[in-house]
Amino acid sequence: MSDSITTRGPAFARPGRRSFSFGIGATGLRQIGLIAVLLGLWELASYTLFNPFWSSRPSLIAARLWELALNGELWLHTSTTLQEAGAGLVLAAVIGIPLGIVLARAPEVARTLDPVIMGLYGLPRVALAPLFILWFGIGLFSKIMMAFTMVVFIFLMNVMEGIRTIDPDHLDLMRSMRAGRFYLVRRVLLPAVTPWILASFRIGIGLALIGAVVGELIGANRGLGWYVESRGGQLDTTGVFTGLIVLMVLAMLANQLVGFVERRMITWR
C-alpha cells in the first residue's frame, strides 16, 4: 500500500499549477484593464455627469498624490498607518493563534468561555475608539490596540475551527504508530491550520486598516485617517479620495502578498 501511495503522490502535487512569482498573467491583465476602465469612466463622468467638487476626478487625485510624494507627506501618513495596522495585525496573530489552539484542545474550557468570546466579538469595537484614546493616548499604541481588537477574534475562531476539522481517526492512527506530540504538531496540526491562518490574514488586513483609520479619525496628528478627516473638514474632496485610494492600494498589495505566501506554503492548491 505504501508503494502505491508513493507512486500516486506526485500526481496530486500538480506542479504545473503552482505560481511562485508575481508575474502578470491573463488574470492580472484583466484586473488592470478593469481598473483602467473604471478610472476612465470616473474621469469621463466628472466632466459630463456631475460636478467634480463632489467626487473629484482621477487626474486631480494623481496630481495630489504626486504633490504629497514630493513634499514627503505621502510617506509620513502612509508609514504611520502601516505601522499601526501592521503591528495590530501581527499582535493579533501572536495572541489569537496560540489561544485558538489551546481552546481547541480544551473543548470544555472553550464551551465555558464561548458566551464571553462571542459577546466581545459582537461588541462594536469602533465604539471603543474614544476609550482607547483616553486610556492609551493619541500616539501609535492606541491605534495598534484598535487594530488588534478588530482582528484577534478572527484568528482565534478560525484556528479553533481549523483544528476541529482534523479527523480524529487520523490522529488515533498516528498515535498508534507511536508518533510523538511534536511530530503530530508538525505533520498534522500545522498543515491543517495553515490555510485557516492565511485566510485570517486575508480578512484581517482590511480590518486592521479599518481599526487604525478609525483610531486616527478619533484622535491623531498624522496617518491616512487623520489626512482624510482633515481634508474632509476643509471640503477638499480630492484630498479625501486621495487618502481613500492609498488605503485601497495598501489593502490590495497586502492581499497579493498573502496570496503569494499562500501559493508558496500550500502547494496542494
Task: Give the helices and strands, then pairings.
Blueprint: H1 2-13, H2 26-48, H3 52-55, H4 58-71, H5 73-105, H6 107-122, H7 129-136, H8 140-164, H9 168-176, H10 181-218, H11 224-233, H12 237-265
Helix pairs in contact: 4-12, 5-8, 5-10, 5-11, 7-8, 8-10, 10-11, 10-12, 11-12
Protein name: ABC transporter permease
Keywords: Cell membrane, Membrane, Transmembrane, Transmembrane helix, Transport
Family: Belongs to the binding-protein-dependent transport system permease family.
Detail the poorly predicted runs: 1-22
Q: SSE order, as H and E?
A: HHHHHHHHHHHH
> Rg to the nearest angstrom?
23 Å
- Sheet with most strands: none
Percent helix = over 70%
In terms of DSSP E residues, the strand content is under 5%
Total beta strands: 0
Q: Number of helical segments?
A: 12
| Span between termini | 25 Å
Domain ABC transmembrane type-1: 78-259
Organism: Xanthobacter aminoxidans
Protein name: ABC transporter permease
Transmembrane segments: 20-42, 85-104, 116-138, 144-167, 188-218, 238-261
Structural overview:
InterPro entries: MetI-like, MetI-like_sf. It is found in: Cell membrane. Keywords: Cell membrane, Membrane, Transmembrane, Transmembrane helix, Transport. It is a multi-pass membrane protein. The chain has 269 residues and is mainly α. Helix content is 82%, strand content 0%. The protein is built from twelve helices and no strands. It has helices at 2-13, 26-48, 52-55, 58-71, 73-105, 107-122, 129-136, 140-164, 168-176, 181-218, 224-233, 237-265. Helix 7 (129-136) packs across helix 8 (140-164), helix 8 (140-164) runs antiparallel to helix 10 (181-218) and helix 10 packs parallel to helix 11 (224-233). It starts with a helix and ends with a helix. Mean pLDDT is 81; it is low at 1-22.
